[in-house]
Design brief:
With about 1300 residues, the chain is of the alpha/beta class. It has 48 helices and 30 strands. The chain is globular. GO terms for molecular function: helicase activity; mRNA binding.
């Protein structure tokens, strides 16, 4: 990546009057470059002789201003125009009475001063020619004209602030123009000396980082910086009082966030920390500080403290050192600037208005590189907002139109003077009439803000129009949901022939829209409605009426207030909800708003990731092999150092597999066992292996060298990116990284993030299968947790984890009870009610300390050496029953089992102090769980809550990263609060494939013109960040993998797809994969009942007939999936299946999905319908084709208009391979074959007379009809 450019210091704007008259100063030519002929001075002797030969003459008159200006670069002229004889005696008297100067005069003054400074060994005060009678505006003009020259500015500041000869007007001018002065002082010097002012005598090892100290010293010593600046600030800093420059320090604080030590002060610039600390230590004087709602009263409140008390408060906030000696006015200025001296503008509203939904917006552009995090957030916020608005407005128009709003007038008629109301003749699943909207609470603005802290409201809806199923759907979706309040204006509702066919929201009378977050819902009796408000008692609603408590956008409410638009909150008459999949946009935007306010406090991302994330720096900076990450590993606890052994667990099947995984390396191994711990030296090309015994199941399938390299990278600190072509085992690689991190760093937490619930299913199942992670350390967050297809004993939802913990606790306590009774410490009669254990976790631990450990110590003290008499001395024989103890090692193993049981009870001890489900789930999530998983949607929803709980994690593994938007990758990186100025995150592992489908963008303009479909994963690939491309697939038949393998430069096939069922032909079918040409059916190909809802009945019938044929000859319906490229076709195929396969002989219906939704999934056999007959459509995107052709393991059958797709050159490679089987596009069957009894090899010739070619759909229909009759006859 190109090096990051240094940002120029922002220039403060001068007053308009002065700025218009200021001219750039003319540069004086250095003396070394003057001409040696024209314009040179005479030698002293010659000059004296000439003077003696001529009579004395009158002094020449000074040149005019015009003459000087025209010859401003003439060194001879400037040498004659000294500061005294020209500026003071000639020019100044002429301009003294003026209030402003023109550009010509300012240019001359600047040129003379530059020349004077360059050629005088001890230059005087530069503005000494100005006396106290000059106009203040004139002095300001002169100051503003000369400060762009660094030498003039530094000399001016030095003489004005440190000399005893002060000019009052100059000092006043400098004070009034500090904004402009600061813009011309080198930024690094300001940062350095402001840091020195706030932290006196900083020492690199303790305060400022050594790297920062070194870089500033290098900058100061470079030739591009005037050394006068350094001496100026050093002299000012050393003075006992610096009241004259305190303003400069305070103003410069806006850049001190870049100083590492200042940026690391956790909470130092947090207004709420000021309120909390101030009220804690000075409650009597600062009684109102905690209630302060406006900034104006802050200075007055702090003024009640003395200078010593302000110093104490400042040191507690880590703004200044405790021994600092500052004036009270200086301290107040510092506090006021630090804690928001000016009111910040209101945050952006996360909800759209009608204007947003009905007007065309300027498209942002998402680049590959960003200036800083603020730029990143701003651009992505705009892009994401527009995608949200585009998606919402079509939904809103559709569902509001379904309610059929109508204007209703009174009996006097429908004149304009008559007030009208709205009634709704129709209904919609997602929109219902609302009433009684009322703003119930408007909070006071927070300190430094203008918008209210919170705005709450209530609204009433009646769900009586819905059946019980739909009503339950509304009630189940309230929590974490967003709704939209809509105002329909009756006067704008179209009537009769004025109705629009494809309306916008304004076309159907929508006048106002406001969004809100649901806080709670009750019925008419106040019973809480919804199934997930854990801490409140829930009852069956007594009616269909719902009272909804809402949180409105405070920013939008403030805007409505100042525009006098609060009347609109009285006129809402519809409430709209959206389903969970489409309802996450506001949560993302709200999270970005929170992050925006946090950006100013310091770096949010880890330092090692920051520049790479933005697109700058060295491409290897975030790689564990890079020099930067090696240094990071050496000084950071909790990570693997370059010289350390790395635990790979059971990632290798044998030592030979280990050696094959490191080609070109010399591998040495010690010991034996199935576990491997490795130390790899890239420079020496050596691998040291320590083997150990483990009960883990070796990895299946065998990892390839590339996978091992990716696992090694993931276990080290830094950024790991893995490109996983279809079937190459990226999920297995991710599981290995997760389990090995758990084994190597048992106290650290790993966050697992995916785009879909299906991907979480796959990961959790594979993690559990390894046996490495005990299930009590795993938890799943989010509303989609119920979709996890895990067997009932492994319920990973929050509620499921609590239930599991309570059950496991009870089971372990019963074990303790049995152990106690076997030792005679208690008896059966002492058990609790129902025969339950009488122990709690607390008493169990006391029992372990006083009885178990004591007996273990006594056992070892009685041993005489060796194994003699071990069985008789073993104290827990009664508890372990038939377990034979003959050796000391046997006893130690059983002692370890007891310790493990009591350790687990210690983990559950906190549950005895918690009674609510919410507190228990929070405890599990933040204290016990080591692998926490969620989707990107829930990450945004839960971020603020997780930060409040103190949630933290050390590693993050992101699956399906190529399908996530930029912000969806960004938010999961920020689910914890920085502590001590540093970010705890040590490892980021991204898994994806930029050759498969990108993020789904519904707004085509944002996708094609704004670059929004470029994921963070893809952006990093384009920037050249190091990544690992897996190169061997283990999913599909070897010849089938070639259909898409060409996109990756070819894929090798693992041994697992070169044996068994992969070598046998598909029963009843000549080819394992084939393209089937589908002609018009009933005189029609593709058609669209509604815009963009494309269907093809011929292909739908053909696909369903193919499914019927396969099931009738013995295929399992669950092993067949039907895919298509359009939602309209998906719905049509489902309808045809319902119609054609109602007979019980077809069993369960197959999965029917679009290609886009099926990404990340697979099945043995795939029937694919491409739908289009007029053009290729969006299959022209080769990434979609790759997904479509890579879902099948054993059989792929593509139904399409063959000639239409063959015209597309982008698809030629794959279609040519498909066309090699059944080149005419006719489906070829093998008659008489049944599933399970086929020994025919894949690709083998079919016996003569068994092949049957279906020329058209009707031919396959006849075969299906015949087979169906045979099955029915035999049943």
């Amino acid at each position: 990546m190109p090096p990051r450019k240094k940002k120029a210091a922002p220039k403060a704007k001068a007053p308009a009057k002065i700025a218009a008259k200021r001219a750039p100063p003319a540069k004086a030519e250095p003396a070394s470059k003057r001409s040696k002929t024209g314009g040179a001075k005479q030698a002293p002797a010659a000059k004296a002789k000439a003077q003696r030969s001529k009579p004395a003459a009158k002094p020449a008159a000074p040149p005019s201003l015009d003459h000087v200006h025209k010859n401003i670069t003439n060194e001879e002229l400037l040498s004659d125009l000294s500061l005294t004889n020209y500026l003071q005696n000639s020019l100044y008297p002429k301009i003294k009475s003026k209030k402003s100067l023109d550009n010509k005069t300012l240019s001359v003054i600047t040129a003379v001063l530059q020349h004077t400074l360059a050629n005088s060994p001890s230059p005087p005060q530069l503005l000494s020619f100005l006396d106290d009678d000059a106009e203040a505006e004139l002095v300001s003009d002169v100051v503003l004209a000369i400060i762009p020259d660094p030498k003039l500015l530094s000399h001016l500041l030095r003489t004005s602030y440190t000399s005893d000869e002060h000019n009052t007007l100059v000092r006043a001018a400098l004070s009034s123009t500090f904004d402009s002065i600061l813009s011309h002082i080198p930024e690094s010097i300001l940062e350095y000396f402001v840091a020195k002012a706030l932290i006196p005598n900083p020492k690199p090892p303790n305060k400022l980082s050594s790297a920062f100290h070194s870089s500033v010293q290098t900058f100061i010593s470079s030739s591009c910086v005037d050394s006068d600046f350094v001496s100026l600030f050093q002299s000012l800093h050393s003075t006992p009082s610096f009241s004259d420059i305190s303003k400069a320090y305070c103003m410069a604080l806006n850049i001190t966030s870049k100083v590492p030590d200042l940026a690391s002060l956790d909470g130092a610039y947090d207004v709420y920390t000021l309120q909390r600390i101030g009220f804690k230590y000075y409650p009597e004087k600062l009684t109102r500080l905690g209630l302060m709602g406006r900034i104006e009263g802050l200075e007055k409140e702090l003024s009640l403290l003395t200078a010593d008390e302000l110093t104490d408060l400042g040191s507690r906030l880590r703004l200044i050192a405790p021994e600092s000696e500052y004036e009270k006015v200086e301290l107040l200025a510092l506090f006021m600037h630090t804690f928001n001296p000016s009111v910040k503008p209101p945050a952006r509203s996360i909800y759209p208005t009608v204007q947003n939904l009905s007007t065309t917006q300027t498209l942002p552009y998402l680049p590959t590189q960003y200036v800083d995090l603020k730029h990143y957030i701003d651009v992505n916020y705009k892009a994401y907002s527009q995608e949200y608005w585009y998606d919402l407005k079509s939904d809103m128009a559709n569902h509001v139109q379904r309610t059929q709003p109508r204007a209703v007038y009174n009996q006097d008629g429908g004149t304009e003077d008559v007030e009208a109301s709205v009634e709704f003749a129709g209904w919609s699943k997602y929109v219902t009439p609302s009433r009684d909207f009322k703003v119930s609470k408007v909070g006071r603005p927070r300190l430094g803000r203008v918008e209210p802290d919170t705005v709450e409201a209530t609204v009433v809806v009646d769900l009586a129009q819905y059946n019980f199923g739909m009503r339950a759907e509304w009630d189940d979706g309230w929590q974490d949901s967003y709704v939209y309040l809509i105002n329909i204006n009756p006067s704008k509702i179209p009537e009769g022939d004025k109705a629009v066919k494809d309306p916008t929201i304004k076309d159907i009378g929508v006048e106002r829209v406001r969004g809100a977050k649901v806080l709670g819902v009750t019925d008419v009796d106040g019973n809480v409605v919804g199934n997930r408000w854990d801490d409140q008692q829930k009852r069956q609603p007594v009616s269909a009426v719902r009272h909804i408590r809402l949180e409105l956008s405070a920013a939008q409410f403030h805007l409505d207030t100042i525009k006098n638009n609060l009347f609109i909150y009285k006129n809402f008459n519809l409430l709209m909800r959206r389903d969970g999949v489409n309802n996450n946009h506001p949560s993302i935007l709200e999270t970005l708003n929170h992050i925006t306010s946090e950006v100013e406090e310091g770096k949010l991302l880890p330092s090692w990731l920051h520049d790479v994330f933005l697109g700058y720096g060295n491409v290897d900076d975030a790689s564990f092999t890079g020099a930067k990450m090696k240094r990071y590993a050496e000084i950071t606890p909790g990570v693997t150092k370059p010289s350390d052994f790395i635990d790979f667990g059971s990632s290798f099947k044998s030592v030979n597999h280990l050696k094959a995984s490191f080609p070109g390396f010399k591998v040495t191994s010690t010991s034996s066992g199935a576990g491997y711990s490795l130390r790899v030296n890239n420079e020496k090309k050596t691998v040291e292996a320590k083997l150990y015994e483990t009960k883990e199941t070796p990895a299946v399938p065998k990892f390839t060298p590339v996978q091992i390299s990716a696992i090694r990278s993931g276990l080290n600190p830094g950024l790991t990116m893995v490109v996983g072509p279809p079937g190459t085992g990226k999920t297995d690689t991710a599981v290995s990284i997760i389990t090995n991190l758990f084994r190597s760093f048992p106290t650290q937490r790993t966050l697992l993030v995916t785009h879909s619930n299906a991907a979480l299913n796959d990961l959790f199942e594979k993690i559990m299968a390894t046996g490495v992670v005990d299930e009590r350390y795993m938890i799943r967050l989010g509303s989609g947790e119920k979709d996890l297809n895990i067997e009932s004993s492994h319920d990973f939802t929050k509620q499921g984890r609590v239930k599991y913990t309570l059950q496991k606790r009870e089971k372990l306590l019963m074990e303790v009870q049995s152990l106690s009774e076997s030792l005679g410490v208690s008896n059966v009669l002492e058990r609790g009610a129902g025969g339950l254990s009488s122990y709690t976790c607390e008493t169990a631990m006391l029992f372990y300390t006083h009885h178990i450990q004591a007996r273990i110590q006594l056992f070892f003290s009685k041993l005489k050496g060796g194994d003699e008499g071990v069985g008789g001395l073993f104290p827990f024989g009664g508890f372990f029953g038939g377990r034979v103890v003959q050796e000391v090692e046997d006893a130690k193993g059983l002692f370890e089992e007891l310790k493990s049981m009591f350790d687990e009870l210690e983990d559950f001890r906190a549950f005895e102090l918690m009674r609510s489900m919410g507190k228990r789930t929070d405890y599990l999530m933040t204290k016990q769980a080591k692998i926490v998983a969620c989707t990107v949607t829930h990450a945004a929803l839960a971020r603020q809550r997780l930060i409040e709980l103190g949630f933290n994690y050390d590693s993050i593994v992101v699956e399906e990263a190529g399908q996530m938007l930029e912000v969806e990758n960004f938010v999961p990186l920020l689910l914890q609060k920085n502590t001590g100025g540093s970010n705890r995150l040590k490892r980021v592992c991204l898994f994806g494939d930029h050759h498969q489908l990108p993020p789904i963008i519904k707004n085509r303009d944002l996708s094609t013109k704004a670059n929004m479909d470029m994921s963070f994963f893809t952006r990093m690939i384009r920037l050249g960040i190091k990544h690992y491309t897996l190169d061997s697939q283990g999913r599909a038949r070897e010849d089938m993998s070639k259909l898409y393998g060409w996109r990756y430069g070819g894929l090798a096939s693992l041994d697992c797809v070169k044996e068994g069922r992969y070598l046998k032909a598909n029963a009843g079918l000549v080819h394992d994969f084939q393209i089937i040409d589908v002609e018009d059916y009933e005189g029609r190909g593709e058609h669209a009942p509604t815009p963009h809802y494309i269907q093809n009945l011929g292909e739908a019938e053909y696909v369903v007939a193919m499914f019927q044929y396969m099931v009738l000859i013995g295929y399992d319906p669950k092993r067949i999936s039907i895919l298509t490229t359009y939602n309209g076709q998906k719905d049509l195929i489902k309808d045809v299946l319902q119609s054609r396969c109602r007979n019980r002989i077809f069993g369960a219906l197959p999965t029917v999905s679009t290609v886009d939704k099926f990404q990340g999934q697979q099945n043995d056999y795939v029937l694919l319908s491409l739908v289009r007959t007029k053009n290729v459509g969006h299959l022209r995107d080769v990434r979609r084709l790759v997904v479509a052709l890579s879902r099948a393991k054993l059989g792929l059958y593509v139904f399409c208009r063959k000639a239409n797709f063959e015209r597309c050159s982008d698809l030629k490679e794959s279609l040519d391979l498909l066309g090699k089987n059944g080149g005419e596009g006719k489906l070829e069957l093998v008659m008489g074959e049944g599933y399970g009894g086929v020994e025919r090899a894949s690709g083998a010739e079919v016996e003569e007379g068994k092949k049957y070619v279906c020329e058209k759909l009707e031919d396959l229909g006849k075969v299906v009809h015949s087979l169906q009759a045979q099955v029915l006859a035999s049943s």
